Sequence to fold (528 residues):
Amino acid sequence: MDFRTVIGDIPRIHSRRAPDELAFVDGPVRLSWGTVDDRVNRLANALRDELGIGDLDRVAVLAGNCHEYLDVMFAASRAKAVYTGLNVRHHPAEVVEQMRDCAARVLFVGPGFEEAGAVVAQETGALPVHFRGPNSSYGELLTAASPEPIGSHQDPEATYALTYTSGTTGRPKGAMISSRSEIAFVHSLIIGSETRVDDRFMLVTPLFHKGGQFAVMHAAYVGRPTVILPRPDPEQMCLTIERERVSVFLAVPTIMKMLVEHVEQAGAGRYDLSSLRHVLYGSNPIPVGQIRRFVELFGVAMCQIGGIGTEGGAGLILDRVDHERALVDPALAHRLGSCGRVQPGFQMKVLDDDGREVGPDAIGELVFRGDAYIAGYWDKPEESRRAWRSGWLHSGDIGRRDRDGYVYYVDRMGGRIKTGGETVYPREVEDALRGHPAVRDVAVVGVPDERWGEEIWAVVEHEAPVVAGPELGQELRACARERIAGYKVPKRVLFVDALPRTALGKTAIAEVRALAMAASSAAPTGRR
Fold:
């Protein structure tokens, strides 16, 4: 593949090389590269000729993971259009907002989303096209379309996808993903997973999210098959690994935890998981104990990927060797709490509040550059300028780099809490509380306070059947006081059955803060 390759070219390249080789498995559907290339040609022609989509016009997909979704991703690029995946966990009103933001003209609707799709299409005027079901028009669209190949537009800088940020701290923004940045991202995953010519991949992360998007492009770029799962159900994951001899997949900590608990409950000998050799993970901080538990149970190589998520590539990698050394050498165990080191193709600096680069172990904002990063946000020039300054993409993440080059995430810039004139990073408070057996998960936020400026609140997802009340709140505060300075200890502990999360399992901090604010206004003593 040369430097002019675009995402829509990938099925054509593999179809010419090995048309009968397996490309995708979706339940009973098994598609070769030759078949995929034909479907992509037909849909690209239909986008142009039947649906009136021109260069850089937008089309949207409201669907779970399925092979038709991939048709749209590749065909949009081949037709020099732009696709955007819609968050299937959002309320229809939120989906409408994204549709209006990107002005998508066509809405592809997957099974189970017919009702929401009808609302969105009516509100936005987009033309609905249903993949499956009684109102399906997708099959007829492909059958009637011309199979004539569309030549590559050879513009790797053109946006092929608008992938919206998860909105953990504010309103989602459309990151403009080009073929060049996506392929550079894939190269980093090839290095991180030590990709082999006989690998078989499994897709469990949602395709509307960057995690699903780059996971499927990783396998497609190297021409290896991907088994598509509609959702990360641990039983189906185990059965799929066994049946399809899956060797690699991308996970997030939430999925890893579910998988460990399921296999431990079912019994390690119930499934043949011997084909699994490498698991990539990222997105959220993960307790070191959880990494050890996963490796001990599955016996696989691990690779943590980090960087800026939706906006770019895996600039930071904690690779297989790092994991193996840290798991056996107590002197290196702390590295499991890092994001790894900067890998080839990327540059990173740590800057203080005045924009000056700081030395080892000093805390500052992590800034990056490299081909894998986006050029900006859709229709948001001011936010794009704030993100890109002096040639560097500002992540908004606070961290530090040690003398060995390992990078440690501290917190989001907007997450810093100013209390009594002191700066507190929520991550260190959360880490102090996570060791308590009653805490399943926790998020720490600042709530405005007349005396302190901000008051530290810990919103705790408690383990069942723990009785969550004032006594437990005091116990957790005492636990934190043994590990961190007194001014960092939460003033309030709010218990919830489940923390609000994004579709990829990240804690939705804006929603957590809203919960704390509401509790503070309604009852200053909170639910402690």
